[in-house]
Design brief:
The complex is a heterodimer of chains A (281) and B (317). With 281 residues, chain A is an alpha/beta fold. Chain A has a single domain, classed as Thiamin diphosphate (ThDP)-binding fold, Pyr/PP domains (Rossmann fold), CATH 3.40.50.970. Chain A has ten helices and seven strands. In chain A, the strands form two sheets. A five-stranded parallel beta sheet of chain A has the order 1-2-3-7-6, with helices on both faces. In chain A, strands 4-5 form a two-stranded antiparallel sheet. In chain A, strand 2, helix 6 and strand 3 form a beta-alpha-beta unit. The longest helix of chain A has 22 residues. Chain B is of the alpha/beta class and 317 residues long. Chain B folds into two domains: 167 residues, Rossmann fold, CATH 3.40.50.970; 127 residues, 3-Layer(aba) Sandwich (Rossmann fold). Helices cover 39% and strands 21% of the residues of chain B. In chain B, the strands form three sheets. In chain B, strands 3-2-4-5-7-6-12 form a seven-stranded mixed beta sheet, sandwiched between helices. In chain B, strands 9-11-10-13-14 form a five-stranded mixed beta sheet, with helices on both faces. In chain B, strand 10, helix 8 and strand 11 form a beta-alpha-beta unit. In chain B, helix 1 packs parallel to helix 7, helix 3 runs parallel beside helix 5 and helix 8 packs across helix 12. The radius of gyration of chain B is 19 Å and the shape is globular. The two termini of chain B are 22 Å apart. The chains are: A alpha/beta (281), B alpha/beta (317).
Chain lengths: 281, 317
């Protein structure tokens, strides 16, 4: 088991990777990626029972993770490579011609860790439900995790899947909502207020856990609590409170950093705020 | 003209239902998903035989497509079905991202396709689905012509690994393909060898092409009739060989000629061997309520329309 400090150190390196990847190709989505760095580190280094060395799409006898908000691919790619799914050096090819690290994730180029394409929002919860149904059919005890942006919850398909999972007691599913109140056009509550998410999920017969997504200790606590609520007749949602751009002071809390790359000067500034702990790629 | 006997009258959707049941018996990984139309799309027998492998999604087609993709990537052969309008057009983006681009083993089964859906009218009579589906990379498109062929096709797509679109219809239509006739994805079926004109037909229009062939034979015209059940991948070899022999073409389908079989054949010929070509299909318009047979007449999808098209194309030879 990793200590909190060890996990925080990994998350710091992941944040450096994110900034460098996005700067390297002058495109991509740093804001949500930075905000989810702690969660993704906790998930892949402490929570998920998965097999980096023997990755299979089918994911039999292991936990499965689906990234529904595919635009935060930098954080996923960084964590996957740091966890050993593929070489860390591949991060330098992000968004480049011929790279398996596409702007938005896809299994098309056989990138270990990725099971389905995402990018067009709102589909990943349904995909996760499908995978969770198969785990039940096949008598597999492992869990399915999905991650979504809060803005993504404006997509109607999400609520189709929320209704289905609650109504069908898909209780081997943990969905995490990145509540950073930020989307491209501004704050979520001003673009289209999604209201009281806790009340909404409770009304759809889900268990609701809240956690502070930029506090490693609380991430571990929240994920543990969510896991303890599975297999009891209800799907589980974690409302994860984060700041967009967390860890880089000039990006933090600003929806304007959803999908733009920092320039050279901004990159240097950002990296000076993030400790290199595992060695840059 | 080769003689075809009507072996019975049955809807092609029942062929799908019976094929799905058979596929389920053969492979325990076959699962079926439905969006509140279980009996309409003939999934009832599968549901009864394999209740633990049947998923009732409710009226939420977008969710159904992506749930099917999640099940497929987890190792299942995921058949989902709805009316073709809702199984394809309504969920185009879900199919594009979760099925085609992700190359998941999902079988899209569109029932009540075309104008012969009848009385429900244009909202439900999709006439664009072949085009929508065939444009997607990784997707194969099959539009069988009768009960027996639809049953065979359902079994065949279960054995095929990858995204597939199977299109079938609502009304009872003649069964004329024997159970013993081999079915192979991507391999066109010779209905009648002839030398004067190549008639390529798909779906419900194959029977009309046979009736047209009989009329043409009485007029001294020897039509070659070929059943193109697989629109993608197209059996280019068979089509080009036939056209080389006959020198002119009529394509027949219950679909917009924009984007349909007509387009596929026209492209193939334009690149390889351009010849005069006429079409029988829907000419850039929506359908309407009515009895299937009356709609076939009004929208020009009958044997008489095929005969007329043949006369027209023969003059251009």
């Amino acid at each position: 088991m990793a200590t909190i400090l060890e996990l925080e150190n990994i998350a710091s390196q992941v944040r450096r990777d994110i900034v460098r990847m996005v700067n390297g190709c002058s495109s991509g989505h740093p804001g949500g990626s930075l905000g989810c760095a702690d969660l993704m580190t906790a998930l892949y280094f402490e929570v998920l029972d998965s097999k980096p060395e023997n990755f299979t799409i089918e994911g039999k006898k292991e936990d499965m993770f689906f990234l529904s908000n595919g635009h935060i691919s930098p954080v996923w790619y960084s964590v996957l490579s740091r966890r050993g799914f593929f070489p860390i050096s591949d991060l330098s090819t992000f968004r480049c011609l011929g790279s398996p690290l596409q702007g938005h994730p896809t299994p098309k180029y056989n990138l270990p860790g990725v099971r389905i394409s995402s990018g067009s929002l709102g589909q990943g919860l349904s995909v996760g439900v499908g995978a969770a149904l198969v785990k039940k059919m096949d008598g597999c005890d492992h869990l399915v995790y999905t991650l979504h942006g809060d803005g993504e919850l404006q997509e109607g398909q999400i609520w189709e899947a929320v209704m289905f999972a609650g109504g069908n007691k898909v209780d081997n599913l943990i969905s995490i909502i990145d509540c950073n109140n930020a989307q491209i056009d501004g704050n979520v509550d001003t673009v289209l207020n999604i209201g009281d998410l806790k009340a909404k999920f409770l009304a759809f017969d889900w268990e609701v856990v809240e956690m502070q997504g930029n506090d490693m200790k609380d991430c571990l606590r929240g994920l543990k609590e969510a896991k303890s609520l599975t297999k009891k007749g209800k799907p589980v949602v974690i409302l994860m409170h984060t700041l967009m751009g967390y860890g880089v002071d000039f990006m933090q809390g600003l929806s304007s950093w959803h999908g733009i790359a920092p320039n050279a000067e901004q990159t240097a500034d950002a990296l000076s705020q993030l400790k290199e702990t595992l060695g840059d790629y | 003209m080769k003689k075809y006997t009507i072996l019975g009258n049955k809807d092609t959707r029942s062929g799908f239902g019976d094929g799905l049941l058979e596929a389920g018996k053969r492979n325990p990984n076959v699962v079926a998903l439905c969006a509140d139309l279980t009996e309409s799309v003939k999934m009832t027998a599968f549901k009864k035989a394999f209740p633990e492998r049947f998923v009732q999604i409710g009226i939420a087609e977008a969710n159904m497509v992506s749930v099917a993709a999640g099940m497929a990537l987890s190792g299942k052969v995921a058949f989902y079905s709805s009316f073709a309008a809702f199984a394809t057009g309504r969920v185009y983006d879900q199919i594009r991202q979760s099925v085609a681009y992700s190359n998941t083993n999902v079988k899209i089964c569109g029932s009540h396709a075309g104008i012969t859906l009848g009385e429900d009218g244009a909202t439900h009579q999709i006439l664009e689905d072949i085009g929508l589906m065939k444009m997607m990379p990784n997707m194969i498109v099959i539009n069988p012509c009768d009960y027996n062929q639809t049953k065979q096709a359902a079994i065949a797509i279960a054995e095929y690994k990858g995204p597939a679109y199977l299109r079938f219809g609502r009304p009872k239509v003649p069964i004329f393909i024997s159970e013993e006739t081999p079915f192979e994805i991507g391999k066109a079926l010779m209905i009648n060898e002839g030398k004067d004109v190549s008639i390529f037909a798909t779906g419900h229009l194959v029977w009309e092409a046979i009736v047209a062939g009989e009329i043409l034979a009485e007029q001294g015209i020897d039509a070659e009739i070929i059943n193109i059940h697989t629109i993608k991948p197209l059996d280019s070899e068979t089509i080009l060989r036939s056209v080389e022999k006959t020198g002119c073409v009529v394509s027949c389908e219950e679909h917009q000629f924009n984007g349909g079989l007509n387009d596929s054949i026209a492209q193939l010929l334009a690149r390889n061997n351009p010849k005069p070509m006429e079409y029988v299909g829907i000419d850039d318009q929506f359908g309407e309520s009515g009895k299937p047979e009356d709609l076939m007449v009004k929208y020009g999808l009958k044997a008489a329309n095929i005969v007329e098209a043949v006369h027209k194309v023969l003059k251009r030879k």
